[in-house]
Amino acid sequence: MTADRIALAVHDHGGDGPPLLLLHGAGRTLADWAAVAPLLVARHRVLAVDLRGHGLSPDGPWRLPEVLGDLEEVLTAHGIPGALPVGHSFGGILAVVYALEHQDVTPGAVNLDGFGWGRPDQYVGLDPDYVAQHLAQVRELNAAGQGRKLPPDGVKDLLAEQRAISERLGIPYELLEAGIRRSARERDDGALELRPGREEALQMLEVIDSLDLFALFRRMTTPLLLGRARRQVPSVPGLDWFDPMMLAYAGGLARDLAALAEERPNVTVAPIDGTHAMLLENPRAVADAVLAFTS
After folding, report:
1. Which residues pair with 164 in a beta bridge?
2. Pair (130, 156) in one structural domain
3. pTM surpassing 0.90?
4. What angle do CA 68, 279, 46 make, to 5 degrees?
5. Annotated Gene Ontology MF terms (predicted)?
6. What is the mean predicted confidence (pLDDT) over 44-59?
7. Range of the domain at 188
8. Do residues 96 and 266 lie in contact, with contact meaning Cβ atoms separated by under 8 Å?
């Protein structure tokens, strides 16, 4: 392990056929793929990783060259440098960036609902200044919630929250529990925290904000699958403006993705029945979309 290359935690799901590298979203872990990966192994060799600073992987500065180098090292070590990157949320963005940086060996990319918060003009019917104001509030809330420290019995309380989410959204509790247990760690001072740490998380948010996603999509010349959630994320208590904004964004995103697919024959857009939590809610729909694309 060096400052530039980190030996990531890897779950090798096995399987035969063209290899896939599964990438989770920001603040998540490879446990998110636990229900999807078994549906892919009949036709693919499947690896899932914890990105640096997440799950069981070591910490390190969150800069794109180093993060992409981590992934390259994983694929080289497993003898599958030409694996197709398949990512969810921020992992989907990383899949596209990785494919662009390794065009000589990477056959394409799969981005499952990795579109960030979009541009103000994508919020159909809303004033761009109004949208920008509230997006700034969202970013502040995101930043404030990073590097969450827990009391000694904090994991117990978090698991109770996850059980409530399981019952409300119909997500198997075991999937939610695995993610929490993989993300919680004891620090040197004895305190518990959820990974990634605050410094790494803020660096990651800066990376996300620095990227022009549709410009990246248009740079792709190899096949690109863009999976879009068909259902909105749940409401946020206390934010009355959140639901109308998300509805407006869904309209603008669907419009822009349709235009992109019309413009670029290498781009496939696949609506997937689920919210942003599609990997946990509807793993079959996710797997079907990936398998239809790779076939």
Report:
1. none
2. no
3. yes
4. 55
5. hydrolase activity
6. 96
7. 148-194
8. no
What are the pLDDT digits (tens) for 195-247? 998 889 999 999 999 999 999 999 999 999 999 999 998 888 888 999 999 99
Write out the E strands in 26-160: 45-49, 84-88, 109-112, 149-150
Nearest Cα to Cα of residue 254 among 239, 232, 234, 281: 232
Query: What is the predicted pLDDT for the residue at 33?
Result: 98
> How far is 148 from 157, CA to CA, in rounded Å?
13
Quote the number of domains for the chain: 2
Place of tokens 């793993």: 283
- Whole-number Å distance between alpha carbons of 201 and 220: 27
Please state, in angstroms and rounded to a whole number, the distance separating the CA atoms of residues 86 and 40. Answer: 11
Residue 3 counted as domain residue: no
Average pLDDT over residues 54-73: 94
CB within 8 Å of 167: residues ≥ 6 apart: none
3-state helix, strand, coil in the chain (%, to 5): 45, 15, 40
Q: What pLDDT, on the 0 to 100 scale, is given for residue 3?
A: 54
Based on the fold, state whether residues 189 and 201 are members of the same structural domain. Answer: no
Tell me, what amino acid is at 269?
V
Pairwise CA distance, residues 284 & 293, whole Å: 14
